[in-house]
Amino acid sequence: xxxxxxxxxxxxxxxxxxxxxxxxxxxxxxxxxxxxxxxxxxxxxxxxxxxxxxxxxxxxxxxxxxxxxxxxxxxxxxxxxxxxxxx
Length: 87
Description:
Elements: H1 2-9, H2 14-33, H3 36-51, H4 78-83
Helix pairs in contact: 2-3
């Protein structure tokens, strides 16, 4: 129970607030119009906002900290050097 409370009340950032607001707006819209698909999207957004999950929340798609350049090329990759002849 303590874990759930901590997960719901901590880590609120802009993307999480946007999911909550858009999910709420879409849920109201879905109940007004009877749109089941919009209601499903709204529930998905609300779930993501409340549980702080999303595309990369689990770290499944890491981004490297910095790009590494090839040792033989100070500015361009090896493929670019072959494709563009020097003048």
